[in-house]
Amino acid sequence: MHKLDPRAKIIWAVVVLAFSIYNGNYLLSPIYGAVIYASVIIALIISRPPAFWLKLVGILTVVVLFFSLIFWPASAPRGGVPILTIPILGWSYTDLVLNLALSKAFLVLSPIIAVITMLTTSKPGDLFQALVRCKVPYKIAYIPILALRFLPTIINEVKLIIDAQESRALNLRKGNLPSRLRKYVTIFTPLMIRMMKSAIELGVALDSKGFGLSCQRTFSKNLRWEFRDTLFLIFGGLIYVLGLIFCIMPFVR
Amino acid sequence: MAAAIEIKNLWVRYRGEEDYALRDVSLEIKEGEFVLLTGPSGCGKTTLCYTIVGIVPRVIKAEVKGSVSVFGLDSFKTSPAELSQYIGIVFQNPEMQLVTSSVYDEVAFSLENLGFPPEEIRRRIREVLDIVGLKGLEDRSPASLSGGQKQALAIASVLALRPKIIILDEPTSQLDPQGTRRITDLILKLKKDFKVSILAVEHKVEWAVNHVDRMIVMDNGMIKMQGRPAEIFSKKIDVERYGFRPPQVSEIAYKLLERGVILPSIPISLKDAYEIFRRVLEDGKSACRSN
Amino acid sequence: MSIMDGRYYTPLAIILAIIVIAIAIWGGVTFAAASGIIWERGPQVWSWGAAFLSLGFDFWRIVAGILWIVGTVLFIMELSGRTIKGKKLVKQMIKWDSIDIAIAALAAAIYGGGLVVTAGLIVIPGFTWIRPANMLAPVFGILFGIPGCIGLAFGNLIADALGGYLGFGSIGGFIGNFLLGYIPYKFMRDHSLRSSKSIFDFYLWGVLVSSLWCALYISWWLDVAQPLVGLPPLFIWGWFAPFVFVNNAIVTAIVGPALGYVLYPVVKKWGLHWSDRVTFAE
User: Fold this and answer.
1) CA–CA separation, C10 vs C7, rounded Å?
2) Which residues of chain A does B112 touch, with a Cβ-Cβ cutoff of 8 Å?
3) H/E run at residue A38
4) Selection from A29, A17, A135, A27 nearest residue C166 by Cα
5) I need a surface site. Which of A85, B3, B25, B107 has the fewest CB within 10 A?
C-alpha cells in the first residue's frame, strides 16, 4: 500500500465511499456492508500501521455499532421478523431494523477506515504534491503538512508543560469542572507564548528557504502513475462489484 | 580578495521600539574569510545577521538606514530568490528550521521552492548529504536525529543552494560536545574544501578561535573590537568591559594575572595554554633554584 | 438611542448572564438524569436535546441551513481576499507571507494536538467529556485573524484524523471550526479583553453566537450529507448539535477571557496581532 500513488488511494477511498453509500441507503445489506468493511480492514492490516491505528479502528467499530443499534431503530420501517432480543435492556431487533442499523454502521466505518489507510500509507510530501496538482494553492496546501510536521513537537511540548506544572503541585484531575478547566489556562498560556516565538522562527526559516518565492515550484520526485496503481484499482473495483452482484442475485431470482 | 559582504553605516530599529538594535555598523567581510562575531546577549548579533540576508526588514519589520551589499547586490532591493544563491543562514534552534518530514525532503525543500529541475535537485541532494555525513539517512525523520545531525541537516539544506557565504547563528549553542565537534569539523571542511565565506555568531568561542581569520566584538548595537582572536583576548580590560565570554583558558590566565603572575601572552586554546603555563612554571622553578 | 450605547451594556449583560446560568443549570440537571437513570427512554429526555427536537427537524433544518449558507459565503469570501468592513465589501490584504503560514500551521498543530492530548475532561464516565482545547478557538481568532481561523479549520481536521473519524462529515467540521474563530474576530469591536464592552462582546460573539453557529453548521452538514455520512437525524439534532454547542460554550465561557487577556499584550508586542499585519482597501 505504501508504494501506491496517493491518487490511486484517494480514488479507492472515493470508490469505497460510493459503494458504502449505495449499500447504506438502497441495498441495506449488512453482508455487503461487511464485505466492504472487511476489504478496508484487510487493506489497513497489510499496510502494517502502528498499533495505535489498529486499536483506534477497533474501538471505533465497537462505538459506531453500539450507537447505530441505539439510534437507527427509531427510523427503521415497521414490521419484519424479530431476530435479536437483548435480555436486561429489553431491546428487540427485527431483520429490517438490523439491516438498517448495520448498513448505516458500515456506511460510517468503511470510508473512515479507507481514509485512515490512505493517510498512514502516504508520505506527507506526496499528499502535498497531490493537493498542489489538484490546483490547491501551494502555500495553503502546505499548512496541514507543516502542522503534521510540528504535531509531535507540540504534543511533546504540552506533555512537558503538564509535567512541569504538575511538579508545581498542579493537579489536573482534582476539583470541579470549572476549576479543572481554569487549570488548563496554565497549560495553554505558556504553550501559546512558545508558539508565537516559534511562529517567528519558523516564518524566518521558511523565508530563508525561499518558500513562496516562485510560482513555478517543482518537485524532486514527481508522482508517477504505475501499472500497479491501475491493478490495485481494478482488483478493488472487482471485489466491490462482484460482492454487489452476489448480494443482489437472490433478489433478482 | 573581493568583498563578500559590505555594510556601511547601518542603523536598525524594530517597529515599536525606541532604541536602535544596530547603531552605525560598518563592516566588510572578504571572500573566503572565516569571521567570528561575538558579544553579550542582546548586543545586536542576530539582528545584524538577519539584516545581511534581508530577513530584516522583509519579514521582521524594522526601520533601516544605511546599506548592506552581498557580492555587490543590495540586500534590501535584491529578491530573496537571487540573494539565496549567494548567502544562506543556519539558525540557532534546529527544531524550528527543519520544516519537512524527512532528511531527503528537507534538503530538497529550498531547491523545489526556487524551481530547480528534478534531476538537478536529486544530484545536489546526493552531493550535500555526502558532504555533511548524512548519506544513508534520507528517509529518516528530522525529529529522530541527534542535535548535531539536525544542525548538519540544516547546513545541508543551505549548502544545496551552493551559497558563497554561510551565516551560522550560534550553531553549537544547543549541542552537546560530540555534536559541537561534528559541526566544527563540517564548518572547517566547508571553508577548506569549498572556499565558502563563513560568519559564525557564537558565545561559546572555544571551537572557533583557532580557526577564524578575524573576530568581531559587538556591544549595544555597535562594533567595539575587531582583529585576530589572540589580539582581542589579550585586552583583558576590554573583554570585561564588553562582557563577552572568553575561552576558559583565557579566563584562567586572567585569574593568574590578577594574582600577580606574569604571563608572556594570553592563551586562547588548550595548546597555547599548555605551552605558556609550562614555560611560566619552568621560569618560576629556575627563579626558585637561583634563590 | 442605539442598543449599543454604553448605558445598556451592564443591564443587558446581567439579564443575559441570568438567562444563560438558568439554562445551564436546567440543562445540566436533566443531562445527568437522562444519562444515568432513565436510559431506556434515550437521549431525547435530555432537556437541551428535547428543546432542540421539540422545535422540530424542519425548524432546525431551515435555521441551520440559512446559517450554513451565510457561513460558507463568509468563508469563501474571506479566503478570496474580501471582507465586510462597516457596511462595505472591501479588499483585505493578508500577505500570506511565511509568518502567516507559520501562524496558521502552528495554530493547526496546537489546536489539533491540544484536542487530542487533552482528550476529554470526563463529565460522566464512559459517556461524555468536555474538550479543554476548545478554549483556544475564539482566542486564535481574535488574536491572529484569518490565519488563526484557518489554523483552527486544519487543526480540527487533524484531530478528526487522529481520532479516527476523518470522513465526509469532516468538511462541515472544517468550516464550522473556522467560524468558531471567525465570528469573534469579525464581530467583536474591541479585542483587548480589557474593558467591560470587550468582555461582553466576547461572551456574546465568542461564547454564545460562535458556539451555536458552529454546532448548527456542522449539524446541518451532517444532516444533509446523511446518505453519505450515515448518522441518524435523531442523533444529529437530539444529541450532537446541543452537545457541540454546550461543549464549546462552557469551555470558552469559563477560561476564554482569561487566556485572551494574558496573551493579547504579548501578541501585540511581537507584532503578530492581525491588526498589525492586515490592511484594507476599498
Assistant:
1) 7
2) 217-220
3) helix A30-46
4) A17
5) A85
CB pair distance less than 8 Å for A217 and B101: no
Selected for mutation to probe chain C from A54, A188, A194 (highest C CB count within 10 Å) is A188
Whole-number pLDDT of residue B289: 57
Which residues 220-239 of A are in CB contact (within 8 Å) with C?
none
Rounded Cα distance between A20 and A104, Å, is 9
CB–CB contact B91 A153 (8 Å): no
Q: Bigger pLDDT: C33 or C56? A: C56
Return the partners of chain B (3 or more C-beta pairs < 8 Å).
Answer: A, C
Which residues 6+ apart lie within 8 Å of B76 measured at CB?
Answer: B54, B57, B64, B67, B68
Inter-chain contact C269–B16, Cβ cutoff 8 Å? Answer: yes
Residue the block writes with cell 538577519: B50
End-to-end Cα separation, chain A, in angstroms:
38
Q: State the pLDDT at residue A250.
A: 66
Contact list, B114 vs chain A (CB under 8 Å): 210, 213-214
Q: Is the pLDDT of residue A226 over 90?
A: no
- The answer to whether C271 faces chain B, any CB pair under 8 Å, is yes
User: In the A/B pair of chains, how many CB contacts fall below 8 A?
Assistant: 99
Write out the three cell numbers for A14: 472515493
Q: What is the pTM of this model?
A: 0.83
CA angle B206, B208, B211 (to 5 degrees): 130
The answer to whether the beta carbons of residues C23 and C212 sit under 8 Å apart is no
Q: Is it the case that residue C101 has pLDDT exceeding 90?
A: yes
Q: At what angle do helices B248-258 and B270-290 cross, to 10 degrees?
A: 30
End-to-end CA distance of chain B: 55
Say how many CB pairs under 8 Å bridge B and C: 7
Measuring CA to CA, how many Å separate C119 from each of A23, C115, C129, C151?
33, 6, 8, 19
Alpha-carbon distance values, A218 to A142, A210, B83, B113, C270 (Å): 14, 12, 19, 7, 34
Q: What is the pLDDT of residue C240?
A: 83
Complete DSSP assignment for A95-160: HHHHHHHHHHHHHHHHHHHHHHHHHHTS-HHHHHHHHHHTT--HHHHHHHHHHHHHHHHHHHHHHH
Nearest residue of chain C to residue B16 (CA atoms): C269
Cα of A49 vs its chain's centroid, Å? 13
CATH of domain C2-32+44-281: 1.10.1760.20
Taking CB atoms and an 8 Å limit, are C114 and A158 in contact across chains?
Answer: yes
Residues in Cβ contact with B180 at an 8 Å cutoff, skipping those fewer than 6 apart: B148, B172, B204, B207
A170: confidence class by pLDDT, cuts 50, 70, 90 = confident
Binning pLDDT at 50, 70 and 90, where does residue A195 land?
confident
CA–CA separation, C99 and C105 (whole Å): 10
Is the Cβ pair C271, B16 closer than 8 Å? yes
Task: State how far the Cα of B136 lies from the Cα of B158, in Å rounded to an integer.
Answer: 19
Chain C, nearest residue to B17 by Cα: C269
Kindly state whether C93 is in contact with chain B, defined as any CB-CB distance less than 8 angstroms: no
Q: How far is the C-alpha of C150 from the C-alpha of C182, rounded, in Å?
A: 9
Domain ranges for chain A, please list them.
Answer: 6-122+224-247, 127-208
Q: What is the pLDDT of residues B126-138, one digit of tens each?
A: 999 998 889 999 9
> Regarding predicted confidence, which is higher, A27 or A237?
A237
Query: Where are the alpha helices (H) located in chain C, listed in sequence order?
Result: 6-36, 47-54, 57-79, 98-117, 136-144, 146-163, 170-187, 196-201, 210-224, 226-229, 233-235, 241-269, 274-277
- Place C124 in a pLDDT band, splitting at 50, 70 and 90: very low
* A27-36, B282-291, C166-175: range with lowest mean pLDDT: B282-291
Q: Which of residues 233-272 of C touch A (CB under 8 A)?
A: 233-235, 250-251, 254-255, 258-259, 262-263, 266-267, 270, 272
The grid cell for B126 is: 546526493
